[in-house]
Amino acid sequence: MPAPASTLCTVTHTFYDASGTEVEGVLVRFTPASTPQRAHALGFVATEITAESNASGVVSFSLFREMKGTLTITGVAVTRQVTVPDLPSVDLYDLLGGLPDPLDPIDLPFTSPPRRS
């Protein structure tokens, strides 16, 4: 028996290449963060899920709302920790939005090296 729709958030997105053509075969994987995150009111979340974009570049899958986990996207080399929103649906891009990019430069305060005496 599937989980009730009211407990799920449908994640969707369309992938394009640099020329604007839809990309088939992009894999998106969600892995629950830890054992407590795998426990749900309806039962135990047994494993991660993987979805693949179709010929139109569209990927769509459902996750339990408010579940935390690791989201990985092949082809664009993205791996992020996310929390699924308590919404009926969300775009994958919005799910990743607001998260710091690990490749963003970090401004460090300038310090002078010690001088030799």
Which tags fit this structure?
single chain; 117 residues; mainly beta; 4-stranded antiparallel β-sheet; 9 strands; 8% helix; 37% strand; extended
Question: Which secondary structure elements does this structure contain, and how are they paired or packed?
Answer:
Layout: E1 8-14, E2 27-32, H1 35-38, E3 39-40, E4 43-44, E5 49-52, E6 58-64, E7 68-73, E8 78-83, E9 89-91, H2 92-96
Parallel strand pairs: 1-9
Antiparallel strand pairs: 1-6, 2-5, 2-7, 3-4, 7-8
Give a structural overview:
The protein has 117 residues and is mainly β. It contains two helices and nine strands; from the N terminus they run ββαβββββββα. The strands form three sheets. It has a four-stranded antiparallel sheet with strand order 5-2-7-8. A three-stranded mixed sheet has the order 6-1-9. It is extended and about 75 Å long. The protein starts with 7 loop residues before the first strand and ends in a 21-residue tail after the last helix. The model has no long low-confidence stretch (mean pLDDT 82).
